[in-house]
């Protein structure tokens, strides 16, 4: 993402965006969508990334639970969850989504649409794991 954001003015954004989507580089693709004015599309890509990361994390939790890697003590003090790279990735994607909503919330209608989409996605993710 850093490379694309730095050199974006030198590339055909639509071509790079297609490559990013093809190879599932969702954060870069979201950045390019935002640059081209497709704010809703950018948010949807970030939310898709969050949903995929939560699904992957849940699969790891189930696997680790079955392998008895999850113990009462590491769940009680949250060390199991906090040290997970997958949790960090979810937090980073959520920060990206919040930043996008903050940057493009000038109009009340767009602001409500962006924030409501973000909230809905978070609640749907929570319902999947409850």
Structure characterization notes:
80% of the residues lie in helices and 0% in strands. 21% of the residues are buried. With 130 residues, it is mostly helical. Helix 3 (26-35) packs antiparallel against helix 4, helix 4 packs parallel to helix 8 and helix 7 (85-103) runs antiparallel to helix 8. The protein has helices at residues 2-7, 13-22, 26-35, 39-66, 72-76, 79-82, 85-103, 108-129. The chain is built from 8 helices and no strands. The chain is globular.
Largest sheet: none
Please give the number of β-strands.
0
Radius of gyration: 17 Å
Strand content: under 5%
Please count the helical segments. 8
**Average pLDDT, to the nearest integer?**
82
Helix % is over 70%
Helical/strand content category? mainly alpha
Task: Give the distance, in angstroms, between the N- and C-terminal Cα atoms.
Answer: 33 Å
Overall shape: it is globular
H-E order: HHHHHHHH
Spans of at least 5 consecutive residues with low confidence: none
List keywords for this structure.
single chain; 8 helices; 130 residues; globular; 0% strand; mainly alpha
Q: How would you summarize what this structure contains?
A:
The protein has helices at residues 2-7, 13-22, 26-35, 39-66, 72-76, 79-82, 85-103, 108-129.
